[in-house]
């Protein structure tokens, strides 16, 4: 189950990401796809901010959840899918930057449950700044009507 995918996991992930209307809505882009690790980037957009002009925590959470979920999706069989069943997020610094990078990495692969950790970074003039971290638990789904890739 967990190991290099005999199929093209990168293609599966890109196709699944393209079907995520939420990521399209916020302008997120899948920028790196590796076995067990995904990166999603997002340009700053005032429409995604809260009342103080910072990237909204809900947007940060959604992007990190997708990064962690797709990292988990990269290590499962081609006929299975992933659903997030729990996550915890720590918001560490204000979401201020020109762009944002969200990286998800599998911490503990499994046949039924996968744990992934995510980090969100604000990118601007100086070095990237850590703004959030997430730990997510994903459930591997097989043979469930209406849930595919």
From TrEMBL:
Organism: Rhizobium tubonense
Designated name of the protein: Medium/long-chain acyl-CoA thioesterase YigI
Keyword Disulfide bond appears in the UniProt entry: no
Reactions catalysed, as given in the entry: a medium-chain fatty acyl-CoA + H2O = a medium-chain fatty acid + CoA + H(+); a long-chain fatty acyl-CoA + H2O = a long-chain fatty acid + CoA + H(+); a fatty acyl-CoA + H2O = a fatty acid + CoA + H(+)
Lineage top rank: taxon: Bacteria
Keyword terms of this UniProt record: Hydrolase
Family under the similarity heading: Belongs to the YigI thioesterase family.
GO MF term set: fatty acyl-CoA hydrolase activity
Signal peptide positions (record): none
Name of one Pfam family that matches: 4HBT
Thioesterase domain boundaries: 52-124
E.C. numbers: 3.1.2.20
Claim: Hydrolase is one of the keywords in the record: yes
